[in-house]
């Protein structure tokens, strides 16, 4: 359940293409007595060993449960196939079309007997269970048909097999697929095929589900479900970048000499009126300028920088004697789930389950994601969490986890309602489809996909008539409420 993003030099550029999320529900939740293979799995190992070859224990052919993926692992490395109604190795130019498209499995944990294994992109990431096959299934090809019909069939099969939220985002697959099939013709051009597939996604309202590809030398992207505020600001004079620059400028001015703008522009913190700690996180990662995105070294550097910033901020809060902290996630665009869990870890002295995940078609029990108290400075007083309809993905996972903490009061506006990590699937012609296949839920089983998480204390954060000034007004109103406690 890693939501990857490519680090960029500025948070402003990153936010222009930030991902949105969806958490969904689909079939009834998996029974609690369903398999929990992570409990019996062997210690984590790297697929590629120190000498550059693969670990012999993991070589062979493996098929996933619930993700429509097949891995062929030989001495030289890992080759991924898409498998469903057909089995193929997609045509690619070698260029990653998205952050999720740029990473591959790096770790594994063998299950007893060696016939199944858990694969992960990063340490502590989603447990994707694969089963060993004797050989590559008959019909799997490295030269897939790329006709309009073949591409459309793979596209529709991916949605039918893996999309988890048609019950929350109607109409369902059958109606959408009928529109696509009616448009497909053998002689149609790429642009016409693109329009047909894009039509399937119209009104889906899921920002984690998107189609990306090159058509006639032009990069195209179809993505719905951006909420109300972002489309409005992108259409305004100066666009989203100007809005963000003004927001941060006012925040820094109001925080005065206590203001810190750090973490590669992704974190702002300070103290309000000498009595309330303030921490705003714009993105769950990208705190360094490293370009080895997704690697173990990248992950370690990201966590080290995040912890350094949090240590400094929370030590300053303690020195100032603050009695409450405002945690501002109202402009958080998501990112790495490990950071989303590390934020609530700074506000608890006890471990607890923040949320659970289960993948459609996996047959596994929901996996509990623990929030473990951070080893560095923590804050044990009242926390006032601020969100808006911009808050999405990893920002919503942090919100969901924080809502399990009785000392957290949630204010602002309802979050976007997009939780699921995007499942990236290359179509036979090289276009990339990302869709939501994982169901994120609160420990009690409540799912907030599409609906979002509603605050306990409603506040307008980015009103249409004051999208810049309105934000700090909301912060000041929250600070005034704290003063009345």
CATH topology of the largest domain: 2-enoyl-CoA Hydratase, Chain A, domain 1
Tally of individual helices = 10
**CATH architecture title of the largest domain:** Alpha-Beta Complex
Question: What's the arrangement of strands in the largest beta sheet?
Answer: 1-6-7-8-2-3-4-5
Biggest β-sheet strands, sense, barrel: 8 strands, antiparallel
What is the total number of structural domains? 3
The CATH H-level homologous superfamily of the largest domain: 2-enoyl-CoA Hydratase, Chain A, domain 1
The helix-and-strand class reads: alpha+beta
The radius of gyration computed from the alpha-carbon positions, rounded to a whole number of angstroms, is 23 Å
Note the topology.
Elements: H1 11-16, E1 45-46, E2 60-64, E3 69-74, E4 77-83, E5 87-88, E6 107-110, E7 116-120, E8 128-133, H2 148-162, H3 173-183, H4 190-200, E9 210-215, E10 218-223, H5 229-235, H6 239-255, E11 260-262, E12 267-272, E13 276-281, H7 296-320, E14 324-328, H8 337-342, E15 352-359, E16 367-371, E17 383-387, H9 394-402, E18 408-412, E19 422-426, E20 432-436, E21 438-441, E22 457-458, H10 469-484
Signal peptide: 1-22
Domain Tail specific protease: 240-460
Pfam families: Peptidase_S41
């Amino acid at each position: 359940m890693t939501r990857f993003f490519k680090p960029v030099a500025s948070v402003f550029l990153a936010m222009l293409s930030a991902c949105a999320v969806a958490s969904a529900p689909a079939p009834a939740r998996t029974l609690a007595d369903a398999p929990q293979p992570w409990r019996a799995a062997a210690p984590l190992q790297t697929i590629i060993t120190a000498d550059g070859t693969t670990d012999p224990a993991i070589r062979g052919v493996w098929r996933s449960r619930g993700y429509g993926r097949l891995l062929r692992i030989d001495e030289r490395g890992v080759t991924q196939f898409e498998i469903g109604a057909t089995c193929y190795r997609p045509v690619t130019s070698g260029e990653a079309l998205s952050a999720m498209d740029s990473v591959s499995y790096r770790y594994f944990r063998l299950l007893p007997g060696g016939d199944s294994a858990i694969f992960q992109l990063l340490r502590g990431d989603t447990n994707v269970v694969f089963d060993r096959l004797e050989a590559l299934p008959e019909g799997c090809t490295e030269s897939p048909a790329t006709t309009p019909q073949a591409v459309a069939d793979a596209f529709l099969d991916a949605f039918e097999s893996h999309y988890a939220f048609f019950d929350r985002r109607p109409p369902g697959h059958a109606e959408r697929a009928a529109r696509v099939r009616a448009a497909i013709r053998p002689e149609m051009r790429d642009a016409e095929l693109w329009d047909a597939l894009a039509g399937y996604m119209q009104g889906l309202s899921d920002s984690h589900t998107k189609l990306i590809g090159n058509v006639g030398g032009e990069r195209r992207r179809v993505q719905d479900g951006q909420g109300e505020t972002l489309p409005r600001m992108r259409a305004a004079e100066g666009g989203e970048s100007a809005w963000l620059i003004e927001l941060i400028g006012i925040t820094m001015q109001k925080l005065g000499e206590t203001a810190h703008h750090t973490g590669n522009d992704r974190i702002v913190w300070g103290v309000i009126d000498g009595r309330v700690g303030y921490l705003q996180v714009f993105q769950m990662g990208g705190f360094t300028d490293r370009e080895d995105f997704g690697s173990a070294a990248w992950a370690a550097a990201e966590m080290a920088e995040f912890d350094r910033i949090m240590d400094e901020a929370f030590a300053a809060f303690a020195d100032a004697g603050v009695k409450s902290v405002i945690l501002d996630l109202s402009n958080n665009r998501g990112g790495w789930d490990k950071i989303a869990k590390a934020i609530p870890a700074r506000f608890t002295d006890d471990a607890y389950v923040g949320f659970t995940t289960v993948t459609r078609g996996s047959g596994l029990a929901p996996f509990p994601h623990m929030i473990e108290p951070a080893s560095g400075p923590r804050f044990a007083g009242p926390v006032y969490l601020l969100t808006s309809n911009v808050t999405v993905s990893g920002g919503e996972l942090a919100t969901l986890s924080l809502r399990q903490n009785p000392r957290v009061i949630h204010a602002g506006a309802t979050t976007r309602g997009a939780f699921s990590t995007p499942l990236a699937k290359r179509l036979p012609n090289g276009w990339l489809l990302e869709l939501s296949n994982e169901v994120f839920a609160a420990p009690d089983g409540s799912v907030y996909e599409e609906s979002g998480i509603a605050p306990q204390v409603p506040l307008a954060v980015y009103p249409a008539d004051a999208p810049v000034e309105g934000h700090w007004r909301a912060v000041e109103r929250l600070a005034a409420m704290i003063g009345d406690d």
